[in-house]
């Protein structure tokens, strides 16, 4: 049995710095996305559950952090810290957002852990997005949508959240990693040195 090199799991200073940059950047995006969410809510009045198609943006840092940093805890860290930043900026959901971010980050983290932090291709990104979305859907199911009807709102909302997460956070983070790698900003990371196929 091949031994895992434990040193590869240790965070370098550059890992912490880049993870923090990802988290803070997306924390600001989260705050702005929350404002947009509220502005466009009336457009979904015909079928409110369909607004969940916008959800994936809130899960991007978890998958992006995992794809770029490639260390245990990166997905969780980026999503949780982004949630803290958006809360400090004053989102309408308050400190509950922090717990929600932790649950979402844990979902993405489980996908990378399932492959022992050795696979960072599109299927892994899709799974990370989907599991982050599942975490979000389960959290919302009990925290925010519990007073809505089960079959006309809660279940469609949950399914659309997972689908949005896989598409936006999964595919989106993979493409964003590829785009960043081409600029050279990820040259100190394996993600910046590999040939991408999507």
Describe the SSE topology.
Blueprint: H1 13-40, H2 60-69, H3 74-89, H4 96-114, H5 122-143, H6 150-183, H7 190-193
Helix pairs in contact: 1-2, 1-3, 2-3, 2-5, 2-6, 3-4, 4-5, 5-6
Structure description:
By secondary structure, the protein is mainly alpha-helical. It has a single domain, classed as Arp2/3 complex 21 kDa subunit ARPC3, CATH 1.10.1760. The radius of gyration is 17 Å and the shape is globular. The N terminus is likely disordered.
Question: In the CATH classification, which architecture applies?
Answer: Orthogonal Bundle
* Mean pLDDT value: 92
Q: Determine the fraction of residues in helical runs and give it as a percent range.
A: 55-70%
Which residues form runs of ≥5 with pLDDT under 50? 1-7
Quickly count the domains. 1
- State the CATH topology: Arp2/3 complex 21 kDa subunit ARPC3
Tag the structure with descriptive keywords.
198 residues; Arp2/3 complex 21 kDa subunit ARPC3; 7 helices; 0% strand
Give a concise summary:
With 198 residues, the chain is an all-alpha fold.
